Amino acid sequence: MNQPKDGEELIFVPLGGAGEIGMNLNLYGYGTEAHRQWIMVDLGVMFGDDDTPGIDIIMPDPGFIEERRHQLLAIVLTHAHEDHIGAVAHLWPRLRVPVYATPFTAALVRGKLEEQGLLDEVPLKIVPLGGELQLGPFSLEFIDVTHSIPEPNCIAIRTPLGVVLHTGDWKIDPQPLVGRKTNIDALRKLGEEGVLAAICDSTNVFVPGRSGSEGEVATRLEAVIAMCKGRVAVTAFASNVARLQSIVRAGAKLGRHVALVGRSMHKITAAAIETGYLKDLPAFINEEAAMTLPPGKVLYVCTGSQGEPRAALARIASGEHPTVTLGPGDTVIFSSRVIPGNEKTIHALHNDLSQRGVEVISAEDHDVHVSGHPARDELADMYAWLRPRVAVPVHGEIRHLSEHVRLAKSLQVPQALLAPNGSIVRLAPGPATIVDEAPHGRLHLDGIILTQGDDSSTKERRAISHAGHIAVTVILDERGRALLDPVVIAAGVPQEAVDSARSAAAEAISRLERRRLDDDRPIIEEVRRAVRRAVQDAWGKRALVHVEVARAG
Amino acid sequence: MNQPKDGEELIFVPLGGAGEIGMNLNLYGYGTEAHRQWIMVDLGVMFGDDDTPGIDIIMPDPGFIEERRHQLLAIVLTHAHEDHIGAVAHLWPRLRVPVYATPFTAALVRGKLEEQGLLDEVPLKIVPLGGELQLGPFSLEFIDVTHSIPEPNCIAIRTPLGVVLHTGDWKIDPQPLVGRKTNIDALRKLGEEGVLAAICDSTNVFVPGRSGSEGEVATRLEAVIAMCKGRVAVTAFASNVARLQSIVRAGAKLGRHVALVGRSMHKITAAAIETGYLKDLPAFINEEAAMTLPPGKVLYVCTGSQGEPRAALARIASGEHPTVTLGPGDTVIFSSRVIPGNEKTIHALHNDLSQRGVEVISAEDHDVHVSGHPARDELADMYAWLRPRVAVPVHGEIRHLSEHVRLAKSLQVPQALLAPNGSIVRLAPGPATIVDEAPHGRLHLDGIILTQGDDSSTKERRAISHAGHIAVTVILDERGRALLDPVVIAAGVPQEAVDSARSAAAEAISRLERRRLDDDRPIIEEVRRAVRRAVQDAWGKRALVHVEVARAG
User: In 3D, which of B140, B166, B205 has the Cα closest to residue B42?
Assistant: First the structure.
């Protein structure tokens, strides 16, 4: 490793993921302020919810690095989950740098680039498992780790000012079933070499003990399926290829033929098979063939564990699926966790299935799932191996990062830093310090338009979802007198309140006619105020009222 | 007990609570079809969520019994939780029958009636604890039970056709701290007398083991508070008077003065003190006095454990509370469960507190809460005491009721019936059977208007929250030609889509001008179609478009 030069600094900037579990975007910078070079680790999305009505996809605002994109060397991806790769196809056109990933991750990114018509433009470069990569002043080493998807990687980033370990998403699974085990030797060796900073996953910092193993889940799933008599459908995250393999093997052992149901199941298995996973498995049968088999001979593996309304399981539960029907005697197994925020949707799905007489088994009552993230004892192991000088927790809400800081300190890490999104952290030289704040925020994919996260149309939608919208058009003649009654158009407002609005608008106009009506502004203000007051009286709520004036002649 | 006469039947009809945890409304009917008399047990609300934007309170539609209100003898309340009493003040004017409750419940109902100006009208009658009551053919006995509020009651309903036990909400708490213990003797005796049907709480049917005791929580809370150095705020459900007492006692023992923060804390403690609870406690101090004490001498008890935005804790977390400020070194203890659906809101509150450096302790990581509902072993006890001929689970979603049916069968109850809201269940004579369906549904309190749950304005609000609203006013002259450009007013739609809508509306009008424009309908249709298409092209979403035509002359 070269010696650092005067004025050179090692910088870390999280633009996403240090404030939420989702939409990761991490920047590492090296050099003097005038000559700094950057790499980006991960570029993910998260999904909208009821706080962002009408928004499906949210991603970090890359503005800070977009302004410096001539200093950006590459995007490096740790693994193929959406919260780490989902924004690549949306934001690459603003960055235009090479993208590095291991084979399975690259296969899934390629699919996304193809959908966006970007495949020929993006230099997508494959790094072998355990591979190394030199990017300007950064020497990268990919270190095998385990997680709930094939090919998760920790990335060791060596610089003249020290070594950073960016963990990505990880756990310690002694029996991952698919792919390699955590390369504990490499992590220990790194610790002996001396680690400046560990930038580490905080998702399960509140969970005591260990996360458990895919091997244990495989055994338990087989035991649960063995007790079932009718049709069985298991729903799991499609990207958990090890889980999928366990389900298929259990099915084969119990004399059940396995059919995949749902688009992303097919997409992920194709990528897995293409990159050498899921070998030596019995062939899948298709949904139509499954229909003709006796119930005890069928095992479906479905998308939709989070209650997604268009996914396979929701359509099965509502009786709208074209080929799969479940009823009394059949069982659905949720081999998945409940992502916070999805509780009600998932329980509604349980209710729909129960209503049909289907028995529902989930991780709430049977141990048919393990998390892909490290629980506290695993975090303790990682810090013991690495012995970093500084811990900078990422991949968590503020509550997770705060708790992770407390945990790291309790584990004798000399310094632990709460660095939320936008923090410009100088990792070296000197103690790690937040030296400045980078502009940061969220972009919303609203339909096909990429908007600033706090844009006015999302805010308006939130407002009108509570108290409706009333649009009033005032039509005046050339002398500024009412030519017609005002036109009142409402959405989401009860009829009695709309009637009141209409009368109030008409009355306001006739009051106004006694004054000069050259200027639109006082008309708009007066009508709006009158309508709002009338609606409030009739309904007890404050609708969003828009008034426009149209003048003839 | 009298002998039943020919043609007499005992009927059970749940109109609320057998399909959701919340808004309980249970009807018991006795007599021949021509001469039937009814009693109502509980009349509660539930709270709106993101599925019902703009709706705070939801209650069962009482239409079925409203039509028969001359046959309704009384409303009987089991306990004072909102999901059992919250709709009394809203729906009593439609029913106009006496209301029976034990003293603490009556005190809280009285407060609600006062707020609605109904106090002088409603015959509110107090039943002593363990009291009896004759209502037409029904002989009622109130049986002490334990729950998370003072004075919960099981109600034994004796009729000529048999005895029903309506459990209400209950658990078996060997150390309830406030109020009496579960009257196990009375329940056993009832079992010996012979129970026809048990209508039983299903809330925690998925929870193995036992719910635990308020006594244990008191010990653990004291241990947790003893470890805290700075200010401590505990948030709990205001109605859990035993919990409140435990917090106050722990504070006193540890040298902390206790201040109540939040309106409902004051309301409930007043009712509790009025009815003889919370005696022998050290006096509360007020919030202002607490400010002047050293941090280690203060203990706040706050409302807002569910993240309610206007409650005390949310205002403390956002730094907007007028008297209470928390920061580094201080601790907030959530001595409460997370009501499903509130996860994100509560976690946002944890994040706000963590951001201020406040340590957050919750039932997720410390045992500082127990549920008020029976876990599986307690349900097994109840069925062993009662040995009913039929189990009809209530107080649950369909998934809870289904599992409760399975559990009851496994406990050798001869018959267990899934009877969702609206089921008209003939309990006797003969085996319990659903003989018909009663009209049932939900009423929404929308602002100050009580609407049908599925009314069009709520549906419209849900639609516009996703894709916005566009109101187009077409202004024609007396000959049916455009007098002015169409006026386009939008809410929740990005500007580029509004611009497209405006052009599309104008173009549609000029196309239409070439045809006869006497009739508004084709104009409205054509403009709407053009605007929707333009918005879809520009935005990728289908806005709600309303068009009106105004004609001059």
Answer: B166
**Helix residue spans in B34-173 (DSSP H):** 63-66, 82-85, 88-95, 103-115
A365 at interface of B, judged by CB pairs closer than 8 A? yes
pLDDT at B517 over 80: no
CB contact, 8 Å: A345 with chain B? no
Taking an 8 Å cut-off on Cβ atoms, the answer to whether A471 and B467 are in contact is no
Closest by CA position to A252, among listed A295, A316, A290, A299: A299
Strand-pair category, B331-334 with B298-302: unpaired
Per CATH, the number for B9-209+371-452 is 3.60.15.10
Q: Is the Cβ pair B461, A468 closer than 8 Å?
A: yes
Tokens (6 digits) for A304: 């939709």
CB contacts, 8 Å: A458 with chain B: 492
Identify the CA nearest to A73 among candidates A34, A45, A41, A44: A41
Tell how far CA B465 is from the center of its chain. 24
| A546–B489 C-beta distance less than 8 A | yes
Residue A549 DSSP SS3: strand
How close is the nearest chain B Cα to the Cα of A438, in Å?
A: 18
| CB-nearest partner of B53 from A344, A465, A469 | A465
pLDDT of residue B400: 97
Residue range A110-122, pLDDT digits in tens: 999 999 999 999 9
Q: Which chain B residues are closer than 8 Å to A54 by Cβ? A: 465-468, 492, 541
pLDDT, tens digit, 9 for 90 and up, residues B98-132: 999 999 999 999 999 999 999 999 999 999 999 99
Residues of B in contact with A463 (CB under 8 A): 491
Query: How many residues in chain B?
Result: 553
Short-list A77, A67, A47, CA closest to A59: A47
Cis? peptide before B282, omega within 30° of 0:
no
> What percentage of chain A has pLDDT greater than the value 70?
100
Quick check: B446 contacting A, CB < 8 Å?
yes
ipTM of the complex: 0.90
Class of domain A468-551 (CATH, top level): alpha beta
Half-sphere exposure of B424 (CA within 13 A, CB side): 13
Q: Please say if the pLDDT value at position B466 is more than 60.
A: yes
* Residues B155-182, mean pLDDT to the nearest whole number: 97
Distances (CA, A) of A487 to A506, A534, B471: 9, 16, 10
DSSP 3-state assignment of A298?
A: strand
Distance, in Å, from the CA atom of B78 to the CA atom of A525, rounded to the nearest integer, reads 52
Query: Is B1's pLDDT higher than 60?
Result: no
Q: How far is CA B477 from CA A293, A535, B505, in A?
A: 69, 31, 17
Identical fold between A9-209+371-452 and A468-551: no
Q: Flag if A541 and B344 touch (Cβ within 8 Å).
A: no
Return the pLDDT at B126: 98
Name the β-bridge partners of B43: B25
Q: How far apart are the C-alpha atoms of A122 and A98, rounded to whole Å? A: 7
d(CA B102, CA B109): 10
CB burial readout A396-423, b (16+ within 10 A) else e: bbbbbbbbbbebbeebebebbbbbbbbb
Residues A214-362: name the CATH superfamily.
Answer: Metallo-hydrolase/oxidoreductase (3.40.50.10710)
- Kindly tell me if the per-residue pLDDT of A1 is higher than 90: no
Q: Where are the domains of chain B?
A: 9-209+371-452, 214-362, 468-551
Highest mean pLDDT among A193-207, B278-292, B331-345: A193-207
Task: Tell me the C-alpha distance between B277 and B151, whole Å.
Answer: 10
Say whether pLDDT at A458 is over 60.
Answer: yes
Contact B473 A457 (CB under 8 A): no
Output DSSP code: residue B454.
T
